[in-house]
Amino acid sequence: MINPVTDLPSTPLPRFATARAIAQAVRAGHRSAVSVIQDTFSNMRAVDPALNCVTHMLEQDALEQAARIDCARQAGAPLPPLAGVPFGVKDLFDIAGHVTTAGSKVLRHAPCARQDAAIVQRLKAAGAIPVAKLNMDEFAYGFATDNAHYGVTRNPHDPTRMAGGSSGGSAAAVAAGVLPFTLGSDTNGSIRVPAALCGTWGIKPTFGRLPRDGAYPFSASLDVVGSFAGTLDDLIDTFHIMDGVASDDAPAEPDAASLRVARLGGWFASSLSPALTTLIEQVCTRLNVTQTVDLPHTASARAASFLITAAEGGNLHLPRLRQQADDYDPATRDRFLAGAMLASSTYLQAQRFRSWFHARIHQIFEQVDVLIAPAVMCEAPLLDDPTILVDGKPVAARANLGLYTQPLTLAGVPVLAAPLLQTHTLPLGLQLVAAPGQESALFSIARKLEREGVLGTMPIPTPEYA
Q: Which residues form the signal peptide (predicted)?
Protein backbone atom coordinates (compact mmCIF):
# COMPACT_ATOMS: atom_id res chain seq x y z
CA MET A 1 0.00 0.00 0.00
CA ILE A 2 1.15 3.55 -0.75
CA ASN A 3 2.02 5.66 2.26
CA PRO A 4 0.57 9.01 1.22
CA VAL A 5 2.10 10.87 4.15
CA THR A 6 5.64 10.19 2.97
CA ASP A 7 4.94 10.09 -0.76
CA LEU A 8 3.07 13.36 -1.09
CA PRO A 9 5.90 15.88 -0.66
CA SER A 10 8.31 14.42 -3.24
CA THR A 11 6.33 12.55 -5.89
CA PRO A 12 3.24 13.07 -8.04
CA LEU A 13 0.04 12.70 -6.06
CA PRO A 14 -0.40 8.96 -5.60
CA ARG A 15 -3.70 7.27 -6.01
CA PHE A 16 -5.29 6.39 -2.66
CA ALA A 17 -3.84 9.48 -0.97
CA THR A 18 -6.01 10.31 2.01
CA ALA A 19 -7.73 13.62 2.66
CA ARG A 20 -5.79 13.95 5.92
CA ALA A 21 -2.45 13.46 4.19
CA ILE A 22 -3.23 15.86 1.35
CA ALA A 23 -4.38 18.62 3.71
CA GLN A 24 -1.35 18.09 5.94
CA ALA A 25 1.01 18.41 2.96
CA VAL A 26 -0.69 21.55 1.65
CA ARG A 27 -0.83 23.25 5.05
CA ALA A 28 2.84 22.43 5.68
CA GLY A 29 3.86 23.85 2.31
CA HIS A 30 5.21 20.51 1.09
CA ARG A 31 2.83 20.58 -1.84
CA SER A 32 0.82 23.30 -3.56
CA ALA A 33 -2.93 22.93 -3.83
CA VAL A 34 -2.62 23.55 -7.57
CA SER A 35 -0.27 20.60 -8.00
CA VAL A 36 -2.66 18.38 -6.04
CA ILE A 37 -5.52 19.30 -8.34
CA GLN A 38 -3.43 18.94 -11.49
CA ASP A 39 -2.33 15.46 -10.43
CA THR A 40 -5.92 14.56 -9.52
CA PHE A 41 -7.09 15.35 -13.03
CA SER A 42 -4.16 13.40 -14.45
CA ASN A 43 -5.14 10.37 -12.36
CA MET A 44 -8.80 10.68 -13.37
CA ARG A 45 -7.91 10.84 -17.07
CA ALA A 46 -5.75 7.73 -16.71
CA VAL A 47 -8.29 5.65 -14.78
CA ASP A 48 -11.75 6.83 -15.77
CA PRO A 49 -11.95 5.57 -19.37
CA ALA A 50 -12.08 2.00 -18.05
CA LEU A 51 -14.54 2.71 -15.22
CA ASN A 52 -16.74 5.63 -16.35
CA CYS A 53 -17.11 7.33 -12.98
CA VAL A 54 -17.00 10.92 -14.24
CA THR A 55 -19.65 12.77 -16.24
CA HIS A 56 -18.28 16.33 -15.99
CA MET A 57 -14.85 17.62 -14.95
CA LEU A 58 -14.72 20.98 -13.14
CA GLU A 59 -11.12 21.74 -14.02
CA GLN A 60 -11.09 25.52 -14.36
CA ASP A 61 -13.11 26.13 -11.20
CA ALA A 62 -10.99 23.67 -9.24
CA LEU A 63 -7.68 25.18 -10.31
CA GLU A 64 -8.90 28.68 -9.48
CA GLN A 65 -9.92 27.62 -5.97
CA ALA A 66 -6.59 25.81 -5.52
CA ALA A 67 -4.68 28.94 -6.57
CA ARG A 68 -6.54 31.00 -3.96
CA ILE A 69 -5.55 28.48 -1.29
CA ASP A 70 -1.90 28.69 -2.36
CA CYS A 71 -2.02 32.49 -2.27
CA ALA A 72 -3.46 32.40 1.23
CA ARG A 73 -0.68 30.08 2.43
CA GLN A 74 2.02 32.25 0.85
CA ALA A 75 0.51 35.27 2.60
CA GLY A 76 0.80 33.48 5.93
CA ALA A 77 -2.94 33.05 6.45
CA PRO A 78 -4.05 30.00 8.40
CA LEU A 79 -5.50 27.32 6.13
CA PRO A 80 -8.74 25.45 6.81
CA PRO A 81 -8.75 21.75 7.73
CA LEU A 82 -9.35 20.34 4.23
CA ALA A 83 -7.15 22.81 2.33
CA GLY A 84 -6.47 21.50 -1.17
CA VAL A 85 -8.35 18.22 -0.79
CA PRO A 86 -10.16 17.21 -4.01
CA PHE A 87 -13.58 15.60 -3.97
CA GLY A 88 -16.33 14.67 -6.41
CA VAL A 89 -20.10 14.99 -6.22
CA LYS A 90 -22.86 12.77 -7.49
CA ASP A 91 -24.38 14.70 -10.37
CA LEU A 92 -27.45 15.74 -8.44
CA PHE A 93 -25.59 18.28 -6.28
CA ASP A 94 -25.55 21.86 -7.53
CA ILE A 95 -22.19 23.36 -8.45
CA ALA A 96 -22.44 27.08 -9.18
CA GLY A 97 -22.12 27.85 -12.88
CA HIS A 98 -22.86 24.30 -14.02
CA VAL A 99 -26.02 22.46 -15.03
CA THR A 100 -27.21 19.82 -12.58
CA THR A 101 -28.34 17.00 -14.86
CA ALA A 102 -29.16 14.39 -12.18
CA GLY A 103 -27.89 11.79 -14.60
CA SER A 104 -30.38 12.67 -17.33
CA LYS A 105 -30.36 14.45 -20.67
CA VAL A 106 -33.83 15.67 -19.70
CA LEU A 107 -32.15 18.50 -17.76
CA ARG A 108 -29.28 19.19 -20.15
CA HIS A 109 -30.75 22.58 -21.14
CA ALA A 110 -31.69 23.61 -17.60
CA PRO A 111 -30.19 26.86 -16.25
CA CYS A 112 -26.84 26.61 -14.52
CA ALA A 113 -26.94 26.46 -10.74
CA ARG A 114 -26.65 29.87 -9.14
CA GLN A 115 -24.90 28.59 -6.03
CA ASP A 116 -23.35 25.44 -4.67
CA ALA A 117 -25.39 22.89 -2.76
CA ALA A 118 -25.36 23.53 0.98
CA ILE A 119 -22.97 20.73 1.93
CA VAL A 120 -20.69 21.63 -0.98
CA GLN A 121 -20.55 25.14 0.45
CA ARG A 122 -19.54 23.77 3.85
CA LEU A 123 -16.82 21.59 2.34
CA LYS A 124 -15.44 24.43 0.20
CA ALA A 125 -15.39 26.70 3.26
CA ALA A 126 -13.21 24.02 4.87
CA GLY A 127 -10.82 24.18 1.89
CA ALA A 128 -11.98 21.10 -0.05
CA ILE A 129 -12.16 21.47 -3.83
CA PRO A 130 -14.89 19.91 -6.02
CA VAL A 131 -13.23 18.51 -9.15
CA ALA A 132 -15.89 16.41 -10.90
CA LYS A 133 -19.51 15.41 -11.17
CA LEU A 134 -19.97 11.67 -11.00
CA ASN A 135 -22.16 9.12 -12.72
CA MET A 136 -25.43 7.88 -11.25
CA ASP A 137 -28.64 6.11 -12.17
CA GLU A 138 -30.94 8.56 -13.92
CA PHE A 139 -32.66 10.71 -11.28
CA ALA A 140 -31.19 8.32 -8.64
CA TYR A 141 -33.73 5.61 -9.51
CA GLY A 142 -31.76 2.37 -9.43
CA PHE A 143 -29.10 0.22 -7.80
CA ALA A 144 -26.80 -0.32 -10.79
CA THR A 145 -25.45 3.01 -12.19
CA ASP A 146 -26.43 1.72 -15.61
CA ASN A 147 -27.26 5.03 -17.25
CA ALA A 148 -28.82 5.27 -20.71
CA HIS A 149 -27.29 8.73 -21.22
CA TYR A 150 -23.85 8.48 -19.58
CA GLY A 151 -23.14 4.75 -19.70
CA VAL A 152 -22.36 2.10 -17.10
CA THR A 153 -19.97 2.67 -14.20
CA ARG A 154 -17.78 -0.39 -13.63
CA ASN A 155 -16.44 -1.83 -10.40
CA PRO A 156 -12.73 -1.02 -9.85
CA HIS A 157 -12.13 -4.43 -8.27
CA ASP A 158 -13.38 -6.14 -11.43
CA PRO A 159 -14.60 -3.98 -14.33
CA THR A 160 -16.79 -6.83 -15.57
CA ARG A 161 -18.98 -6.30 -12.49
CA MET A 162 -21.46 -3.74 -11.22
CA ALA A 163 -20.41 -0.79 -9.10
CA GLY A 164 -23.90 -0.57 -7.62
CA GLY A 165 -26.07 2.51 -7.47
CA SER A 166 -27.47 4.92 -7.62
CA SER A 167 -24.28 6.64 -6.38
CA GLY A 168 -22.04 4.22 -8.26
CA GLY A 169 -19.74 6.83 -9.78
CA SER A 170 -19.05 8.25 -6.33
CA ALA A 171 -18.22 4.86 -4.81
CA ALA A 172 -16.10 3.70 -7.75
CA ALA A 173 -14.03 6.91 -7.83
CA VAL A 174 -13.07 6.37 -4.19
CA ALA A 175 -12.47 2.63 -4.63
CA ALA A 176 -10.21 3.32 -7.63
CA GLY A 177 -8.16 5.73 -5.50
CA VAL A 178 -8.62 8.80 -7.67
CA LEU A 179 -10.55 10.78 -5.02
CA PRO A 180 -10.24 10.52 -1.22
CA PHE A 181 -13.93 11.21 -0.65
CA THR A 182 -17.07 11.90 -2.64
CA LEU A 183 -20.68 12.92 -2.09
CA GLY A 184 -23.69 10.73 -2.72
CA SER A 185 -27.34 10.44 -1.78
CA ASP A 186 -29.29 7.57 -0.26
CA THR A 187 -33.04 7.06 -0.59
CA ASN A 188 -33.30 3.27 -0.45
CA GLY A 189 -29.65 2.28 -0.28
CA SER A 190 -27.94 4.39 -2.93
CA ILE A 191 -24.87 4.95 -0.73
CA ARG A 192 -24.90 1.66 1.14
CA VAL A 193 -25.20 -0.67 -1.87
CA PRO A 194 -22.32 0.76 -3.96
CA ALA A 195 -20.16 1.14 -0.84
CA ALA A 196 -20.57 -2.57 -0.18
CA LEU A 197 -19.97 -3.66 -3.78
CA CYS A 198 -16.94 -1.37 -4.26
CA GLY A 199 -15.42 -1.91 -0.80
CA THR A 200 -15.50 1.66 0.49
CA TRP A 201 -16.76 3.39 3.62
CA GLY A 202 -20.08 5.20 3.31
CA ILE A 203 -22.45 7.08 5.60
CA LYS A 204 -26.20 7.52 5.36
CA PRO A 205 -26.78 10.01 8.17
CA THR A 206 -29.91 10.46 10.23
CA PHE A 207 -32.78 11.69 8.07
CA GLY A 208 -32.71 15.49 8.04
CA ARG A 209 -29.36 15.87 9.79
CA LEU A 210 -27.44 17.16 6.77
CA PRO A 211 -28.95 19.91 4.59
CA ARG A 212 -30.34 18.80 1.23
CA ASP A 213 -30.54 22.30 -0.24
CA GLY A 214 -29.16 22.17 -3.76
CA ALA A 215 -29.48 18.40 -4.12
CA TYR A 216 -31.93 17.33 -6.83
CA PRO A 217 -34.78 15.48 -5.08
CA PHE A 218 -36.04 11.98 -5.68
CA SER A 219 -38.31 11.14 -2.75
CA ALA A 220 -38.65 14.11 -0.40
CA SER A 221 -39.67 12.13 2.67
CA LEU A 222 -36.82 9.61 2.34
CA ASP A 223 -33.85 11.33 0.65
CA VAL A 224 -30.63 11.69 2.66
CA VAL A 225 -27.31 13.16 1.52
CA GLY A 226 -24.07 11.57 2.64
CA SER A 227 -20.60 10.55 1.53
CA PHE A 228 -18.03 7.88 0.68
CA ALA A 229 -14.39 7.77 1.74
CA GLY A 230 -11.36 5.56 1.38
CA THR A 231 -10.63 5.59 5.11
CA LEU A 232 -12.77 5.74 8.22
CA ASP A 233 -10.89 8.81 9.46
CA ASP A 234 -11.64 10.70 6.25
CA LEU A 235 -15.29 9.67 6.41
CA ILE A 236 -15.64 10.92 9.98
CA ASP A 237 -13.69 14.14 9.41
CA THR A 238 -15.73 15.11 6.37
CA PHE A 239 -19.01 14.10 8.03
CA HIS A 240 -18.43 16.55 10.88
CA ILE A 241 -17.63 19.33 8.42
CA MET A 242 -20.80 18.61 6.42
CA ASP A 243 -22.66 18.59 9.73
CA GLY A 244 -21.43 22.12 10.37
CA VAL A 245 -19.30 21.13 13.36
CA ALA A 246 -15.69 22.19 13.88
CA SER A 247 -13.36 19.26 14.56
CA ASP A 248 -12.67 20.48 18.09
CA ASP A 249 -16.40 20.62 18.80
CA ALA A 250 -17.31 17.21 17.37
CA PRO A 251 -19.17 15.04 19.88
CA ALA A 252 -17.01 12.55 21.71
CA GLU A 253 -17.37 8.99 20.54
CA PRO A 254 -18.57 6.64 23.29
CA ASP A 255 -16.36 3.82 24.49
CA ALA A 256 -17.13 0.86 22.22
CA ALA A 257 -17.09 -1.45 25.23
CA SER A 258 -20.02 0.47 26.73
CA LEU A 259 -22.26 0.03 23.69
CA ARG A 260 -24.90 -2.67 23.50
CA VAL A 261 -24.64 -4.41 20.12
CA ALA A 262 -27.01 -6.93 18.56
CA ARG A 263 -27.34 -8.66 15.22
CA LEU A 264 -30.37 -8.29 13.00
CA GLY A 265 -31.77 -11.74 12.20
CA GLY A 266 -34.70 -13.11 10.27
CA TRP A 267 -34.98 -11.15 7.02
CA PHE A 268 -31.36 -9.98 7.41
CA ALA A 269 -29.96 -13.50 7.88
CA SER A 270 -31.50 -15.05 4.78
CA SER A 271 -29.98 -15.36 1.28
CA LEU A 272 -26.47 -14.47 2.46
CA SER A 273 -23.47 -15.85 0.62
CA PRO A 274 -21.41 -18.32 2.68
CA ALA A 275 -18.47 -15.91 2.77
CA LEU A 276 -20.61 -13.08 4.13
CA THR A 277 -22.22 -15.34 6.73
CA THR A 278 -18.78 -16.32 8.01
CA LEU A 279 -17.55 -12.73 8.17
CA ILE A 280 -20.61 -11.47 10.03
CA GLU A 281 -20.16 -14.24 12.57
CA GLN A 282 -16.54 -13.15 13.01
CA VAL A 283 -17.64 -9.56 13.58
CA CYS A 284 -20.15 -10.70 16.20
CA THR A 285 -17.45 -12.76 17.92
CA ARG A 286 -15.09 -9.75 18.09
CA LEU A 287 -17.86 -7.65 19.66
CA ASN A 288 -19.09 -10.44 21.98
CA VAL A 289 -22.53 -10.19 20.39
CA THR A 290 -24.92 -12.81 21.67
CA GLN A 291 -28.28 -11.13 21.02
CA THR A 292 -30.22 -11.41 17.76
CA VAL A 293 -33.08 -9.02 17.04
CA ASP A 294 -35.83 -9.46 14.48
CA LEU A 295 -37.46 -6.35 13.04
CA PRO A 296 -41.25 -6.75 12.81
CA HIS A 297 -42.87 -6.90 9.38
CA THR A 298 -39.62 -6.26 7.51
CA ALA A 299 -41.11 -7.27 4.17
CA SER A 300 -43.86 -4.69 4.64
CA ALA A 301 -41.24 -2.07 5.53
CA ARG A 302 -39.43 -2.74 2.29
CA ALA A 303 -42.69 -2.56 0.35
CA ALA A 304 -43.70 0.69 2.06
CA SER A 305 -40.33 2.27 1.27
CA PHE A 306 -40.69 1.23 -2.36
CA LEU A 307 -44.23 2.60 -2.63
CA ILE A 308 -43.38 5.95 -1.03
CA THR A 309 -40.39 6.32 -3.33
CA ALA A 310 -42.40 5.46 -6.41
CA ALA A 311 -45.29 7.77 -5.55
CA GLU A 312 -43.17 10.78 -4.60
CA GLY A 313 -40.76 10.35 -7.50
CA GLY A 314 -43.54 9.75 -9.99
CA ASN A 315 -45.53 12.80 -8.98
CA LEU A 316 -42.41 14.98 -8.97
CA HIS A 317 -41.67 14.04 -12.57
CA LEU A 318 -45.20 13.78 -13.94
CA PRO A 319 -45.39 17.35 -15.35
CA ARG A 320 -42.12 16.88 -17.22
CA LEU A 321 -43.07 13.39 -18.35
CA ARG A 322 -46.12 14.87 -20.06
CA GLN A 323 -43.79 17.05 -22.13
CA GLN A 324 -40.53 15.07 -22.49
CA ALA A 325 -41.31 11.39 -21.93
CA ASP A 326 -39.10 10.28 -24.82
CA ASP A 327 -36.04 11.94 -23.26
CA TYR A 328 -36.13 9.67 -20.21
CA ASP A 329 -34.43 6.32 -19.96
CA PRO A 330 -37.38 4.00 -20.78
CA ALA A 331 -36.89 1.98 -17.58
CA THR A 332 -36.88 5.12 -15.42
CA ARG A 333 -39.82 6.61 -17.30
CA ASP A 334 -41.97 3.52 -16.83
CA ARG A 335 -41.29 3.34 -13.09
CA PHE A 336 -42.08 7.02 -12.63
CA LEU A 337 -45.33 6.66 -14.56
CA ALA A 338 -46.32 3.63 -12.49
CA GLY A 339 -45.57 5.57 -9.30
CA ALA A 340 -47.61 8.56 -10.44
CA MET A 341 -50.60 6.28 -11.00
CA LEU A 342 -50.55 4.83 -7.49
CA ALA A 343 -53.74 5.54 -5.59
CA SER A 344 -53.39 8.18 -2.90
CA SER A 345 -54.85 5.72 -0.40
CA THR A 346 -51.92 3.37 -1.10
CA TYR A 347 -49.42 6.12 -0.43
CA LEU A 348 -51.18 7.15 2.79
CA GLN A 349 -51.30 3.56 3.97
CA ALA A 350 -47.55 3.24 3.37
CA GLN A 351 -46.91 6.41 5.36
CA ARG A 352 -49.09 5.16 8.23
CA PHE A 353 -47.14 1.92 8.27
CA ARG A 354 -43.95 3.99 8.27
CA SER A 355 -45.01 5.73 11.49
CA TRP A 356 -45.78 2.39 13.11
CA PHE A 357 -42.47 0.86 11.99
CA HIS A 358 -40.56 3.94 13.12
CA ALA A 359 -41.98 3.51 16.62
CA ARG A 360 -41.09 -0.22 16.69
CA ILE A 361 -37.45 0.28 15.72
CA HIS A 362 -37.13 3.02 18.33
CA GLN A 363 -38.36 0.58 20.93
CA ILE A 364 -35.50 -1.71 19.93
CA PHE A 365 -33.02 1.12 20.42
CA GLU A 366 -34.17 1.46 24.01
CA GLN A 367 -32.45 -1.89 24.60
CA VAL A 368 -29.67 -1.83 21.97
CA ASP A 369 -27.24 0.88 20.81
CA VAL A 370 -25.97 -0.57 17.53
CA LEU A 371 -27.37 -3.19 15.17
CA ILE A 372 -25.33 -5.24 12.69
CA ALA A 373 -26.78 -6.20 9.32
CA PRO A 374 -25.50 -7.13 5.87
CA ALA A 375 -25.50 -4.40 3.24
CA VAL A 376 -25.79 -6.65 0.17
CA MET A 377 -26.11 -10.42 0.21
CA CYS A 378 -23.16 -11.19 -2.06
CA GLU A 379 -20.30 -9.79 -4.13
CA ALA A 380 -20.93 -7.48 -7.08
CA PRO A 381 -22.96 -9.16 -9.86
CA LEU A 382 -21.54 -9.50 -13.35
CA LEU A 383 -22.65 -6.85 -15.82
CA ASP A 384 -23.32 -9.56 -18.39
CA ASP A 385 -25.32 -11.65 -15.91
CA PRO A 386 -26.94 -9.11 -13.55
CA THR A 387 -28.60 -11.58 -11.19
CA ILE A 388 -28.32 -12.48 -7.53
CA LEU A 389 -29.67 -15.40 -5.50
CA VAL A 390 -32.61 -14.71 -3.19
CA ASP A 391 -34.07 -17.71 -1.40
CA GLY A 392 -31.93 -19.87 -3.66
CA LYS A 393 -33.44 -18.51 -6.88
CA PRO A 394 -31.82 -16.15 -9.40
CA VAL A 395 -33.53 -12.74 -9.50
CA ALA A 396 -32.73 -9.42 -11.19
CA ALA A 397 -29.95 -7.66 -9.30
CA ARG A 398 -31.10 -4.17 -10.23
CA ALA A 399 -34.43 -4.66 -8.46
CA ASN A 400 -33.17 -6.62 -5.46
CA LEU A 401 -29.76 -5.30 -4.37
CA GLY A 402 -31.62 -3.13 -1.83
CA LEU A 403 -33.14 -6.10 -0.04
CA TYR A 404 -31.42 -5.21 3.26
CA THR A 405 -31.16 -1.44 2.83
CA GLN A 406 -34.73 -0.49 1.89
CA PRO A 407 -36.41 -1.55 5.17
CA LEU A 408 -33.96 0.48 7.27
CA THR A 409 -34.57 3.57 5.13
CA LEU A 410 -38.12 3.74 6.39
CA ALA A 411 -37.05 4.45 9.98
CA GLY A 412 -34.78 7.43 9.16
CA VAL A 413 -31.93 5.99 11.23
CA PRO A 414 -28.21 6.57 10.55
CA VAL A 415 -26.34 3.72 8.88
CA LEU A 416 -22.61 3.31 8.40
CA ALA A 417 -21.62 1.18 5.39
CA ALA A 418 -18.46 -0.62 6.44
CA PRO A 419 -16.18 -2.68 4.15
CA LEU A 420 -15.15 -6.11 5.42
CA LEU A 421 -11.58 -7.36 5.20
CA GLN A 422 -10.42 -10.93 4.63
CA THR A 423 -13.22 -11.68 2.17
CA HIS A 424 -10.89 -13.78 -0.03
CA THR A 425 -13.13 -12.66 -2.85
CA LEU A 426 -14.58 -9.36 -4.05
CA PRO A 427 -15.76 -6.73 -1.56
CA LEU A 428 -18.53 -7.44 0.93
CA GLY A 429 -20.01 -4.93 3.35
CA LEU A 430 -21.90 -4.42 6.58
CA GLN A 431 -24.50 -1.97 7.76
CA LEU A 432 -23.97 -0.63 11.28
CA VAL A 433 -27.23 0.94 12.44
CA ALA A 434 -28.00 3.27 15.37
CA ALA A 435 -30.81 5.43 16.70
CA PRO A 436 -31.33 8.87 15.13
CA GLY A 437 -28.53 11.28 15.95
CA GLN A 438 -26.20 8.55 17.20
CA GLU A 439 -23.66 8.51 14.39
CA SER A 440 -20.90 8.71 17.01
CA ALA A 441 -21.83 5.24 18.27
CA LEU A 442 -21.41 3.88 14.75
CA PHE A 443 -18.00 5.50 14.45
CA SER A 444 -16.91 4.03 17.77
CA ILE A 445 -17.84 0.46 16.84
CA ALA A 446 -16.28 0.85 13.40
CA ARG A 447 -13.01 2.11 14.91
CA LYS A 448 -12.85 -0.89 17.21
CA LEU A 449 -13.40 -3.33 14.37
CA GLU A 450 -10.90 -1.49 12.19
CA ARG A 451 -8.24 -1.71 14.91
CA GLU A 452 -8.85 -5.45 15.14
CA GLY A 453 -8.41 -5.93 11.40
CA VAL A 454 -12.01 -6.87 10.66
CA LEU A 455 -13.09 -3.75 8.77
CA GLY A 456 -11.13 -1.59 6.36
CA THR A 457 -10.86 -0.52 2.77
CA MET A 458 -10.17 -3.54 0.62
CA PRO A 459 -7.14 -2.95 -1.63
CA ILE A 460 -7.65 -3.52 -5.32
CA PRO A 461 -5.29 -5.68 -7.36
CA THR A 462 -3.11 -3.85 -9.87
CA PRO A 463 -5.58 -3.52 -12.71
CA GLU A 464 -5.03 -3.27 -16.45
CA TYR A 465 -6.53 0.22 -16.42
CA ALA A 466 -3.89 1.51 -13.96
A: none
